[in-house]
Design goal:
single chain; 275 residues; mainly alpha; two-stranded antiparallel ribbon; globular
């Protein structure tokens, strides 16, 4: 374990050296992420400029509602585990798009390091810091501007168990990328599958109750991104869905085990590619 931690630190240092050679590229990437989030928040603001709250109805009866600050809090919270995964483990995208297809994966099999760890830690995406900063800023802003009657329901002691589950939230993102990227060992390219599954996390930026049963089941148990955003955020805000915390741990461990199984099966079936 300590050996891998030292190796990870070395990988980060080497990647930072490369980034320092292309400062403009890094700045453009960071600005691009900030603009993407700004546009989505702007659109969210336009929607709430026309409605007082996001309302969930069942059989025509209002069951629940969320004001703009609560949705903004959920949105900001969703960016943190996603941003941390992006910061440390984003090289898996390359596996699905070009590493296997171009035959570059062979190098990972010639080093005395577990190939999954090597792929995972070879790249350090500093531009993801913009995503994390935006997430933290949205949480702070939405909390400070929240109406008193809503803010009074927040118990900040609930943040501690949520922080304890945060590594498992990150594990969900990494496991989804691992499982879908590993498909490339059979198909040579699987980046579009990774993109399709990964982008399901956009549903988790909003209250899960507003979706139908099928979507809610998918984003809670199959591609469980709601467990990384909506459920922990609403637990902090209202104390609801406490059950989601142990479920997050269980689901993330199962998903990680499945992703490792697919990875190792893919390695055993891997044949070099490229021209």
């Amino acid at each position: 374990m300590f050996r891998y931690m030292r190796l990870h630190k070395i990988f980060i240092k080497q990647d930072l050296k490369k980034l320092m050679e292309y400062k403009v590229d890094f700045l453009l990437g960071a600005v691009g992420f900030l603009l993407e989030q700004a546009v989505q928040i702007f659109c969210l603001g336009i929607i709430f400029a026309s409605i007082p709250a996001l309302v969930y109805r069942e059989n025509g009866v209002v069951q629940d509602s969320w004001i703009f600050n609560e949705v903004l809090f959920i949105y900001g919270f969703s960016l943190i585990p996603k941003g941390i995964d992006h910061l440390f483990f984003d090289n898996l995208w390359g596996l699905g798009y070009w590493i296997v297809d171009k035959g570059d994966f062979d190098k990972y099999l010639t080093r005395p390091v577990y190939s999954w760890f090597y792929v995972l830690c070879e790249k350090f995406c500093v531009d993801a810091l913009g995503e994390i900063i935006v997430g933290v800023a949205l949480i702070i802003y939405s909390t400070l501007t929240m109406p008193m009657e809503v803010a009074s329901a927040i118990n900040w002691w609930r943040v501690l168990p949520v922080l304890a589950v945060m590594p498992f939230c990150i594990m969900i993102f990494t496991s989804v990328k691992t499982a879908t990227a590993a498909i490339s060992f059979w198909t040579k390219r699987s980046g579009h599958i990774t993109h399709m599954c990964y982008m399901t996390n956009d549903f988790a930026k909003y209250p899960a109750k507003i979706y139908n049963v099928f979507v809610k089941t998918v984003i809670t148990y199959i591609l469980p991104f709601a467990l990384t955003a909506y459920y922990p955020a609403i637990f902090i805000l209202r104390g609801e869905s406490w059950w989601s915390l142990p479920v997050t741990v269980l689901v993330s461990v199962v998903l990680f085990a499945v992703s490792q199984f697919i990875w190792n099966k893919g390695i055993s079936s891997y044949e070099s590619a490229g021209s």
